[in-house]
Design a protein that fits this description.
single chain, 418 residues, alpha/beta, Alpha-Beta Plaits, VC0802-like, 3 domains, 8-stranded mixed β-sheet, 4-stranded antiparallel β-sheet, globular, binds aspartic acid, binds magnesium ion
Length: 418
């Protein structure tokens, strides 16, 4: 008998019918002799709809505390209904909110990190033979406030809970049947991976592959949680995410990700003197603004130009903050570019293989596309290019790195990706 955490995303429980099918799947697992803890997201687009509703009520940004109070109701609807569905199939189930499950977080709203899990009730319900259903994406701060973990945070709940109860396996059920070499909607011959390492998955998740929440992968890596990503609509085997993953002979790139949520900001004519970059970027950091690739693009006549990327959603705020530093820094002009996409290749084998980045640059330039910015780490290379060329570039890279297969890839039901 093993202890399994099963996590179901919003589209997997999108309506009553799907909810019942998920219940059947859980019951089958239980009747095969496993102990099951289930983590579930809000049904379908509930979270988006609740956000929308708050916008209709508030003119400005809604109070963060009330927003968490509102959004956590979405998961509460799911857990109670799923528990009912399992009970009607004749198995014993009980639903718990995040706080009832002993999930403690920082005292921050909208993006709290889990600090501790004391799963006493969860464990005692398992002992009693019950299937335990836990609301994803939510927890409680030490002062007793209800918090949320950031969009897509139910994955993190599942993995963190799996670590806390020492589960044998954490299964993430979603609307695609695993992790693919790239987005199968763009490359028809994308392959499902049998396995991928935590580090590679972490890069892909950060670089735009929305199948798994990056923080969930981080957790899995830190606590060595056996993780599997699989479809809630089929019985196909999924993708195992683990410490070390085998690479096919001659292949160095595991996957290709892209992220359209990127803007490039350039600050031109910055007088050259020590501390300018520090002033600018510490101001951005103070405002919790994530900056990705930074380059100094040229020095002429005592002044320099800088470019950096940030998420498109943060662009406005970044521009405001830069404007506030104009007096101190004394730059000439700020410009920005949108309609960009960051394309990234990821693979643990890159470290020891020369020429991987060179191939990427060559493939992109052969298509007549210019590269706006580049960044690299030991296991990834990212290029920022114009969005118009996205599909061509990804297809060409996929084939250049030997990732094409002849099998048709599976694309699931309505998308859980954002
Ligand atoms: N319901 C939340 C969201 O839509 C959390 C999740 O689905 O993981 O972001
Ligand atoms: Mg999700």
């Amino acid at each position: 008998m093993s202890l399994i955490v099963m996590k179901f995303g919003g589209s997997s429980v999108g309506d009553a019918e799907r909810m019942k099918r998920v219940a059947q799947r859980i019951v089958r697992r239980k009747q095969a002799g496993h102990q099951c803890v289930v983590v579930v997201s809000a049904m379908g687009d509930t979270t988006d709809e609740l956000i929308d509703l708050s916008k209709q009520i508030c003119d400005g940004p809604p109070p963060a505390r009330e927003m968490d109070m509102l959004l956590t109701t979405g998961e509460q609807v799911s857990v109670s209904l799923l528990s009912m569905a399992i009970n009607s199939l004749g198995e014993k189930a009980i639903s718990y909110t995040g706080w009832q499950s002993g999930i403690y977080t920082e005292a921050v709203h909208a993006r709290a990190r889990i600090t501790d899990i004391q799963p006493l009730r969860v464990l005692s319900s398992i002992e009693q033979g019950q299937i335990v259903i836990v609301a994803g994406f939510q927890g409680m701060s030490e002062t007793g406030e209800i918090t949320t973990l950031g969009r897509g945070g139910s994955d993190t709940t599942a993995v963190a809970l799996a670590a806390a109860i020492n589960a044998d396996l954490c299964e993430i059920y979603t609307d695609v049947d695993g992790i693919y070499t790239t987005d199968p909607r763009i490359v028809k011959v994308a392959k499902k991976l049998q396995e991928i390492s935590y580090d590679e998955m972490l890069e892909l998740a950060h670089l735009g592959a929305a199948v798994l929440h990056p923080r969930a992968v981080e957790y899995a890596k830190n606590y060595n949680v056996s993780l599997v990503v699989r479809s809630s609509f089929t019985d196909n085997e999924g993708t195992n995410v683990k410490e070390e993953a085998v690479m096919e002979q001659g292949i160095v790139v595991r996957g290709i990700a892209y992220d359209k949520n990127v803007a490039r900001i350039s600050i031109l004519g910055v007088p050259e003197k020590p501390g300018q970059l520090a002033k600018l970027f510490s101001e951005l950091a103070k405002n919790h603004l994530d900056v990705d690739i930074i380059v100094q693009s040229g020095v002429t006549g005592g002044s320099a130009d800088f470019s950096f990327t940030t998420s498109l959603t943060d662009r406005e705020r970044a521009l405001e903050i830069i404007e506030q530093t104009r007096g101190v820094i004394g730059y000439r002009e700020v410009t920005f570019e949108e309609n960009l996409v960051k394309v990234s290749i990821v693979g643990a084998g890159m470290v020891s293989t020369p020429g991987v980045a060179a191939t990427m640059f060559q493939v992109i330039s052969d298509l007549g596309v210019s590269i706006s910015l580049v960044s690299t780490s030991e296991i990834k290379v990212s290029c920022v290019i114009d969005q118009t060329h996205l599909a061509d570039v990804i297809r060409a890279l996929h084939s250049a790195y030997g990732l094409d297969s002849t099998e048709q890839a599976f694309v699931g039901g309505p998308s859980e990706r954002r």
